[in-house]
Amino acid sequence: MHQANGEPMLERVTASDLFLLLWDDYGWSSDIGAFAILDGTGLYDSDGHVRIEDVRRYVEPRLHLVPRFRQLLHRPRLGLGWPLWVDAASFDVADHVRVHPVAPPGDEGRLLEACQDLSRRRLDPTRPLWELWLLPGLSEGRVGALLRLHHVMADGTAALAAFATLLDSTAEPTELAASRWAPTPMPSTGDLLRDNLRRRRRELARGFAGIAHPGSTLRRAREAWPAWQEVLTERPAPPTSLNQPVGTDRVMTVVRRRLDVTKQIARAHDAKVNDVVLAAVGGGLRELLASRGENIDGLVQRAMVTISDASLRQTMSEQAQGNKPGWMMVPLPIGEADPVRRLRLIAAETSARKHKARPEAGTGIFRFVAGQRLWYRRFPQQHSVNLVVSNVPGPPVPLYLAGARLLETFPSMPTMGNLTLVVAALSYAGQLNFTAAADRDTCPDVDVFAHGVVDTLDDLATSVPRAAS
């Protein structure tokens, strides 16, 4: 693709992408994705081995739907601009669609351990930054599947949509003709230099426009300030054991619920599904911190809830093109023992906050590399955020990988900075499944948190006539 002047159109990372790319420099895991449990009936051959070549032949014709899956992240030398996406000179699907058996006895614990083992491995920067692992060895002939990709490729919504492009909505695989793929040559040094100079000129022009029109500049700043104020100036919650510098290992646990029951709870209490998720997270935190002997009377913890602009995602998610998330800071009243009261307090907060303009992660001072690095240097000691919570709506109907039905799907997120616990929820085919990822050294008791989430959702379900978990 070329611009009107004949110059090649270069795909630079955005400031939001760059913000996430810096995770690598600070030693934090940078992969996101999802893992699933499949009906493996048709995935095993007569010898009990996964038909991996069949799966690769199924996946490869679909890769043109997600161009990022055959692109590399190229980091030019100083003076040639920000990193950019370029086509890989060669591509072998076998490097990305692979097998990792689950250790006996093939239960859920072993599956989660296998996912953690794979997530511990850094994605190879000399290849496109994604992998699809099949995880045979589960009980009842089932097979696990783990899709992991670098966060710089996509946010959670875009990653889910990219995964969906590799799947079918029926058990009979859609026959796709193998598309001819010819990589676009790497841009020359001159191309990179000219593109960087053009971008610099545009940035200067925007800066001068801001000076020439101070009224509009101040108006945009006023619109964004309430959201930034949530992070920068609101009084943080009292410190707890949730905030400690994280290491390189993490542990996961999952919670399974029904989406229809969650919707009933939300409707009964004039709330949203996301409010019920946050109330359940609050219940989990209450049980976790109490089990550690910490004082929870009147305690409020602050959750950074990731949000995504649906209008932007419609055009970008299927191609996994970058990150467009904003955030909303939500106080979780951990000291409130009544789960219904806690839900209503959270619903009132989110209702009041959701009308604020939500800037992307790479805006304000974070548009500049120096601002991003300043933030990261203090991230392991920050006191503004206690944990991150994500809730992504997934497909409402069952999906299939090479004819194998996805029975369950769970989101996967990393820990970072001093956030020892990260919680993600994902709806799929009537399910609402939670994944809690925690730092192995500082939050090994994440199962206690999961138990509190289950107890809270059970209590909320009993508050709704005829609701059942």
Overall description:
The structure is a single chain. With 469 residues, the protein is of the alpha+beta class. 34% of the residues lie in helices and 20% in strands. It is built from twelve helices and 15 strands. The protein has helices spanning 15-21, 52-59, 108-119, 156-165, 189-212, 214-232, 259-268, 273-291, 310-316, 339-353, 369-378, 446-462; strands spanning 11-12, 31-38, 71-74, 84-87, 97-99, 130-135, 143-150, 250-258, 301-308, 325-332, 387-392, 400-401, 404-412, 421-428, 431-439. A six-stranded mixed beta sheet has the order 5-6-7-2-13-12, sandwiched between helices. Strand 5 (97-99), helix 3 (108-119) and strand 6 (130-135) form a beta-alpha-beta unit. It is globular and about 60 Å long. Mean pLDDT is 86; it is low at 309-318.
